[in-house]
Design brief:
With 189 residues, this protein is mainly α. The chain is built from six helices and four strands, in the order E-E-E-E-H-H-H-H-H-H. The protein has two domains: 77 residues, no CATH class; 62 residues. Strands 1-4 form a two-stranded antiparallel sheet. A two-stranded antiparallel ribbon has the order 2-3. The chain is flat. It starts with a strand and ends with a helix. The N terminus is likely disordered.
């Protein structure tokens, strides 16, 4: 039978900043690993690997900060996301400018082509990042009903109960009139 462990995390041993200590509990090993994977521990380990901080950054500290950032986003505070997007946009713009200038100093067509392709990809990403930031800051209005019929159409977006009651009464009177005509036609046969 598998050993039982809980997901409660504690500070890892100072000797190994990549460690993430898990205390024993009622979950199976598989359940504990699933909770760790879904809880962002793998993302934190990946972030640590690509952050360039070396052994000075503990995975458990990253997990805490990543959960804090996630909780802020869930609560509707997108300030951190907006700052991240703005920083990425500026970095991508700088990357575009650097690559475009370097391509201008190339002597071969192949060198110019490779650097300009990369520069234009960075420019496209910078534009997409700026667009994303704009959408977050100024969301599109919600349209309750679209008027897509051909010809004349009346669109009532309000919830005025008096008008709704009048419309229902008119609809019912038309239905009754149609039923009366159908009954008369049936009797005439």
């Amino acid at each position: 039978m598998a050993t039982k462990k809980a997901i409660k995390a504690t500070s890892p041993a100072k000797s190994d900043p990549n460690a993430f200590k898990v205390e024993e509990g009622k979950d199976t090993r598989s359940q504990t690993l699933a909770k760790l994977v879904a809880g962002g521990v793998l993302s934190a380990a990946t972030l640590k690997q690509f952050s360039g901080t070396g052994e000075d950054l503990d995975v458990s500290d990253l997990v805490v900060e990543m959960r804090k950032a996630g909780n802020e986003a869930v609560a509707g505070d997108l300030g951190r996301v907006e700052r991240m997007l703005a920083n990425q946009m500026l970095t991508l713009d700088q990357l575009f400018n650097n690559l475009a200038q370097r391509s201008g100093r190339q002597d071969t067509f192949k060198g110019i082509e490779v650097l300009m392709r990369l520069a234009l990809k960075a420019q496209a990403q910078a534009r997409a990042t700026a667009e994303t930031l704009s959408v977050i800051k100024n969301p599109a209005p919600y349209i309750r009903q679209a008027n897509i019929a051909h010809g004349h159409q009346q669109v009532n977006n309000g919830t005025n109960t008096e008008h709704i009651a009048q419309a229902r009464a008119r609809a019912e009177s038309f239905c009754r009139a149609d039923q009366t005509i159908d009954e008369e036609r049936t009797l005439a046969r």
